[in-house]
What does this fold into?
Amino acid sequence: RRINVNGALSQGVYAKDVILNIIRRLGVAGGKGFAYEYGGAVVEKMSMEERMTICNMSIEGGALVGYVNPDATTFEFLKGREFVPKGEGFDRAVAYWRSVTSDPDARYDDVVNMDGAKVEPTVTWGINPGQAVGISEKLPLPEEFSDPEGAKKAYEHMGWRPGSAILGTPINVAFVGSCTNSRLSDLRAAAKIAKGKKVHPGIRALVVPGSAGVKALAEKEGLHKIFIEAGFEWRAAGCSMCLAMNPDKLQGREICASSSNRNFVGRQGSPGGRTILMSPAMVAAAAVNGKIVDVREYA
Ligand code: SF4
It folds into this structure.
């Protein structure tokens, strides 16, 4: 299946918002039997890190494979990295990689077109990544879904009312982390929001780099200082609260603004805990405001 994200994204809208919208539209099982090939002007313009966020969450949409055709951005990213051929070997590798890109006239089982300009900062309201809304939208009615019972179950767990707003929902925990959204560009986006501000009183806020390499790069440019001064915990790389690792767990009915990829019941350690997925910048904005806000107003 080819998924084209056309046009351009607005300021404050990120790769996470794009993939949450794709899953919302096609469903958490919509990718069954498909490989997802992402393209279109928005994806072509994205950095490798942004593309990784989208491809990483393909599985949340039911697709076992998600990829972007290799292009100049890919080759630039790979050049000079460990285990990548050097010199003429690199040129040969690039020629091969180019040869395996999809033909311009390739035929797909299905083609989906999305308008990037219509994507707004997006958050989940339910218990799977497809149960998502744009930040300015009201929560949907169960009858709007092909599986109203599934939506009712999600509302029961989350404790929200259909038709109400998610904007302004108070949070208890803010988590910038996970393999989906804790790359250097994610940490930069979150730090930009946190800079010069303080984590809202009573909120536990964590920043957990996606890898030791990312942590070192972030520290080199001083991002850790911005987070620490703002009152975030600056932690060693790992999965942490994405899956309730060690003490990184929600307690009771706590609500977590999280840049991770799964909002399943119990995923963050408490059977009653509630996870709201969003971009790292949105998490940082929620941390300093103590509630879900529209990051476009803080960017
Ligand atoms: S548990 Fe770790 S590897 Fe798995 S999705 Fe979360 S951050 Fe990624």
